[in-house]
Amino acid sequence: MKNRISRILPVVALGSLMLAGCVTTENGRVVGSGIPPGGTAGQTTSGSGGSARDAGDERRRRSDIRLQLAAQHYQQNNFRQAMSEVNDAIGIDRDSARAYGMRGLINWQIGDRAAAEDDFRRGLTLDPKNADINNNYGWYLCKTDRARESIAYFQTATEDLLYRTPAMPLHNAGICSLQAGDEAAAENYFARSFQVDPNNPVAMYNLGDLYLKRGNLERAKFYSDRLLSQYLPSAETLWLALRVARAGGDQTYAASLGGELERRFPGSREAALLKQRAYQ
Fold first, then answer.
1. pTM to 2 decimals?
2. Dihedral, CA of residue 123, residue 126, residue 130 and residue 133, to nearest 10
3. 3-state SS assignment for residue 165
4. Residue 31, phi then psi, degrees to nearest 5
5. Which residues pair with residue 32 across a beta bridge?
6. Dihedrals φ, ψ of 94, to 5°?
7. Domain contains 117
8. In a domain? residue 42
9. What is the extent of the structural domain holding 15?
């Protein structure tokens, strides 16, 4: 069965936040938590420092529960409740880098850029190599007109060899390189992202679009066809495939794709471009 994609866009990273402490929920109720950060299964402590370590582990565990709930509310666009939960997480553990990174995302969403900037930087001060925070802060910089500055943070995120979503900072770096006017760097980042994850729709779409603009129709068609074969069509992927077909002289296939675009996504930007015959 094909996966569904609605838009070819990069995303911020919530992976480690959603898995923090292995907290699980059932019908909105916290039902259990796994090993706290830094712990191991069956770990015991002994000696004079044992109680202090236990207290620190318990504090981090409680903070992580609040942090996971904040991430869940964030995903549901319930930013007020997400802010309440993340503030509780920070109140419990003021050294939680991930909590500051989460609050940075929330403050960005509600339009408080100054607070978002402070939170991202605080998180990176506490954990400079945190891949999620570096990726998200990089995307924040890119979307606030500092694309060139963003690349270093994406690069830092890619250096974590255990990162769960290594293709994400690579394709984000590609998008922001394009925004900065560096097409060669963008191609390199998208190609690396595709190499890491051959099913990555963001990398495939952007590589297809780049090669189409250069007139390399064979490579553009490869990525466009792969997108349509692996994912349910979106307005963006249909529009890309239509333009590739037209450039290759396959007017019959282009017309078929145009009909599908108008039928499935009549109110889309791409459908409007089709009506205007604005193929470039």
1. 0.82
2. 10
3. coil
4. -115, -10
5. 24
6. -75, 0
7. yes
8. no
9. 1-36+55-128
CB-CB neighbours of 245 under 10 Å: 21
User: For residue 124, what are the CA distances in angstroms to 84, 155, 188, 271?
Assistant: 22, 14, 26, 42
Q: One-letter amino acid identity for 132?
A: D
Pairing label, strands 24-26, 3-4: unpaired
**CA nearest neighbour of 222 among 234, 231, 232, 212:** 212
The length of the chain in residues reads 280
CA distances from residue 239 to 11, 156, 207, 235 in whole angstroms, order as listed:
21, 34, 14, 6
CA 258 distance to own-chain centroid: 30
Distances (CA, A) of 129 to 124, 157, 194: 7, 7, 23
Q: Which residue has the tokens 């939960």?
A: 85
Considering the domain boundaries, does residue 113 fall inside one? Answer: yes
Structural domain tally of the chain?
1
Distance in angstroms (rounded) separating the CA atoms of residues 70 and 217: 45
Which CATH number does the domain housing residue 25 bear? 1.25.40.10
Q: Mean pLDDT per segment of 10 residues, for the chain of length 280 residues?
A: 60 55 28 28 43 77 94 94 96 95 96 97 97 96 96 96 93 96 97 96 96 97 97 96 97 97 96 93
Tens of pLDDT, residues 221-254: 999 999 999 999 999 999 999 999 999 999 999 9
Contact 79, 109 (CB under 8 A): yes
